[in-house]
């Protein structure tokens, strides 16, 4: 199964020390299909179409304390395997990793 | 008859219960329909049908769940006996931490115990449609999120066992506190027994089973005829269920011999101190206070601190207990918890500081959540004059 790991963290929080990502990349290996860190929400733009009108605005889709800071698309046998990979992500130590299965039939 | 059922179903509790059901049905029907020609055979058949019904329901649910879950090879697949235990996999699937606690409990009752949705809904006092939806959602998540159908591998097993035990303990407490619904306690004990049978080397599993049995043994004496709470010191100890007490104590012994203490074993040891005291005055409060001290090492909870304060008060006098309770109150935790002012009130009463006690009882009364507790506290307020 494929799972999207949404790497969420509070951008404004001061985190003393973030573990390097390389050991995690090694651990995930070929199971990590794709992924990247994202630029901060200050660089985000949202688009909505309402009544045929395109509404563009500055900022992320929701004003929450934690924002999506990155994503990783992984392939795992089951949820336990996906959770194990997610738990090893450096951001999991101070932020939150949401594990979402892809809609596949 | 029970023995026949046990041989047939391999399940002691189920057999006993179905036999009881058959007798109840007989009492209902025989007066109007007449006593059948061979009452013994009639009873056995009725009980057997009821047992088969339940087993069939359980099997169906188990099959359905296995169909939706990801079937992953578990460690016991290499078991030379070649009998991977489906029930153990079921427990871990039903109690997967990716499911909400209430969904875990409902799924466990549905698939492991074989209760109907109607029965589960009734036990949790929610509409049937709500419970049905909860179960459907849980099964959907098992399928869509890829929750595996297996016993977790060794490196995550301790964590997962803790999760399963927490679910079972919640299930028991759901039936034990407030409006007592004993069937939930019985089911929690039944499933914990299955788990203990399947994982005999896990001392915490034995510890939980011991804890549940030692609590359940006191059930009949916890409320009086009017439904009012009877405090531990005033319970009629001769009416505690001796069979459950003995079994609980033996299980706790077996668990402690493994020398891997854990929160359930410590709580069972506390319950065992109460169960072993013939009269309330015989209670070894020093030992209980020490056990609460070790419990705080496993469970950081202000409720545990409060219980420790009560035990210290019993062991060393109300003044020593009051000091701990007031220190706890000063931390600002538990401000909504009626047992904090209730405990403080009780200690003040025993120190004969009646005016302060009355004030504290009134505070507790404002926070109490059940009618039985409110009646108890009102009586105390009056006694303080």
TrEMBL record, chain A:
Gene3D superfamilies: Dimeric alpha+beta barrel
A Pfam family hit: YCII
Record-annotated YCII-related domain positions: 1-104
Superkingdom in the source lineage: Bacteria
Family named by the database record: Belongs to the YciI family.
Protein name: YCII-related domain-containing protein
Taxonomic path: Bacteria, Bacillati, Actinomycetota, Actinomycetes, Pseudonocardiales
Automatic annotation (TrEMBL), chain B:
Stored PANTHER family: BLL6612 PROTEIN, BLL6612 PROTEIN-RELATED
Any one Gene Ontology molecular-function term assigned to this protein's record: sigma factor activity
InterPro entries: DUF6596, RNA_pol_sigma-70_dom, RNA_pol_sigma70_r2, RNA_pol_sigma70_r4_t2, RNA_pol_sigma_r2, RNA_pol_sigma_r3/r4-like, WH-like_DNA-bd_sf
Protein name, per record: RNA polymerase ECF family sigma subunit
Keywords: Sigma factor, Transcription, Transcription regulation
Record-linked Pfam families: DUF6596, Sigma70_r2, Sigma70_r4_2
GO BP terms, alphabetized: DNA-templated transcription initiation
Similarity remark: Belongs to the sigma-70 factor family. ECF subfamily.
Highest taxon listed in the record's lineage: Bacteria
Domain RNA polymerase sigma factor 70 region 4 type: 91-142
Domain DUF6596 per the UniProt entry, residue ranges: 160-256
The keyword Hydrolase is assigned to this record: no
């Amino acid at each position: 199964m494929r799972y999207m790991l949404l790497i969420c963290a509070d951008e404004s929080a001061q985190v003393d020390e973030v573990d390097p990502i390389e050991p995690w990349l090694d651990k995930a290996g070929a199971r990590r299909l794709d992924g990247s860190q994202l630029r901060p929400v200050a660089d985000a733009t949202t688009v909505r179409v309402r009544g045929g009108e395109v509404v563009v605005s500055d900022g992320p889709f929701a004003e929450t304390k934690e924002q999506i800071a990155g994503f990783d698309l992984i392939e795992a046998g089951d949820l336990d395997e996906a959770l194990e990979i997610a738990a090893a992500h450096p951001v999991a130590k101070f932020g939150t990793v949401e594990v979402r299965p892809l809609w596949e039939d | 008859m029970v023995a026949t059922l046990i041989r047939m179903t391999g399940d002691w509790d189920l057999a006993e219960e179905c036999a009881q059901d058959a007798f109840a049905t007989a009492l209902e029907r025989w007066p109007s329909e007449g006593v059948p020609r061979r009452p013994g055979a009639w009873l056995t058949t009725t009980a057997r049908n009821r047992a088969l019904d339940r087993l069939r329901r359980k099997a169906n649910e188990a099959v359905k769940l296995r169909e939706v879950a990801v079937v992953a090879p578990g460690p016991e697949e290499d078991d030379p006996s070649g009998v991977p235990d489906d029930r153990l996999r079921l427990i871990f699937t039903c109690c997967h931490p990716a499911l909400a606690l209430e969904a875990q409990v409902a799924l466990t009752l549905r698939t492991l115990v074989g209760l109907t949705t109607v029965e589960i809904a009734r036990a949790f006092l929610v509409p049937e449609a709500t419970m049905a939806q909860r179960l459907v959602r849980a099964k959907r998540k098992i399928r869509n999120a890829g929750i595996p159908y297996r016993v977790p591998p060794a490196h995550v097993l301790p964590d997962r066992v803790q999760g399963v035990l927490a679910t079972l303990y919640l299930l028991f407490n759901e039936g034990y506190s407030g409006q007592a619904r004993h069937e939930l306690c019985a089911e929690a004990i039944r499933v914990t027994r299955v788990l203990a049978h399947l994982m005999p080397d896990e001392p915490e599993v034995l510890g939980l089973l011991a804890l549940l049995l030692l609590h359940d043994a006191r059930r009949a004496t916890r409320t009086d005829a009017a439904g009012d709470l009877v405090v531990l010191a005033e319970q009629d100890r001769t009416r505690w269920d001796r069979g459950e007490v003995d079994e609980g104590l033996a299980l706790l012994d077996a668990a402690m011999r493994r020398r891997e203490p854990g929160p359930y074993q410590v709580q069972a040891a506390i319950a065992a101190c109460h169960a072993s005291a013939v009269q309330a005055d015989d209670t070894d409060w020093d030992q209980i206070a020490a056990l609460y001290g070790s419990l705080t090492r496993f469970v950081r909870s202000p409720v545990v601190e409060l219980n420790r304060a009560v035990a210290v008060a019993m062991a060393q006098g109300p003044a020593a207990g009051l000091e701990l309770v007031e220190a706890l109150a000063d931390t600002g935790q538990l401000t909504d918890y009626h047992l904090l002012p209730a405990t403080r009130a009780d200690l003040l009463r025993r120190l004969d500081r009646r005016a302060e006690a009355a004030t504290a009882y009134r505070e507790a009364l404002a926070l109490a959540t059940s009618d039985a507790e409110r009646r108890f506290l009102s009586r105390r307020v009056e006694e303080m004059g």
